[in-house]
What we know:
Blueprint: H1 13-19, H2 21-24, E1 28-31, H3 39-47, E2 53-58, H4 61-74, E3 80-84, H5 90-101, E4 109-112, H6 132-153, E5 163-167, H7 180-184, H8 193-201, H9 203-214, E6 220-225, E7 228-229, H10 237-246, E8 261-262, H11 264-276, E9 287-289, E10 292-293, H12 305-319
Parallel strand pairs: 1-2, 1-4, 2-3, 4-5, 5-6, 6-9, 7-8
Antiparallel strand pairs: 9-10
Helix pairs in contact: 1-3, 1-11, 3-11, 5-6, 6-8, 9-12
Keywords: Oxidoreductase
GO molecular function: oxidoreductase activity
InterPro entries: NAD(P)-bd_dom_sf, SDR_fam
Amino acid sequence: MSALPTFSFNTTAEEVADVFADEIRGKNVLVTGTSLNGLGFETARVIAKYANLVIITGYNSERLKLSEVTIKKENPAAKIYPLILDLSSFASIRKAAAEVNALKGPLHVLIHNAAAFGTSASFASTVDGVETQYATNHVGPFLLTKLLAPKLVASATSTYTPRVVYLSSVAHGYGTGVDFDLLTNPKAEGYDAFKTYWATKSTAPLMAIELSKRSKGKINAFSLKPGLIFTASMENEVVSTIMKGTGALTPEGKPAEGLPWKTIAEGAATTVAAAFDTRLDDQAGAYLADSNVANDKRAAHSCDPDNAERLWTVTETIIGEKFTF
């Protein structure tokens, strides 16, 4: 067997999938947030070349259908299962999880790609009483993982350990970490949409660490930084305004020159590596960047075991259920 290649900044998702085609074959994979022109769609598209089944999710049925049709147009043999899922609603998550659990066979990989990205400058909370970004970026994924954990664990063999992948961001290190007060007591006073986004992205490395620890080897979880990518979310008026203010976007709303921009194909590569690179088998809880382990790129608050344990137990209280193995 030839040596595995070294991945880099410019490696694409398709290149990673092709390297690990044998690892992907026969696997059932769920990817959240799979609208066209996004990281989740690109992840699902390249995995669908080889996987047994790819479950794609979204809360908008028309956009979800468009993603399914687009993947199958390119690869008619792809097995795609579209799943309506609104991560800001516990009821929607429970309904979607029940649907997945009713499908034949185990689940090998769960990829938490979907995210709310400061799309409203003002404070908002969900029907379940959780601040919207925390709901979509952390609490919803936590509940979904909890409900699908038995189906994930069922995929384990003597040579395979199921994986859960959490997308973080370089922005996880911009702030001070999880705002436990806002998480547990949502309020408009002093609310800052972008700081909240940074804080929600700081949960991903913590969850990768804690899920790996609590499952005691039954699940390997990883978090990652996809990189700076111009996706549809940056065309949102609020996000665009803030990104222009940081200098990342030009006054016309285009990617500014001189910054380390990645294409969507390059950005999704690290997700595919986290899901299938066999070199990660003994590195559960690791943080990846440019498709390689980059634990040194984690902010201190996002690899603190006390923070990880506190976040887990606080989130259990929010969903009203214990998440144990």
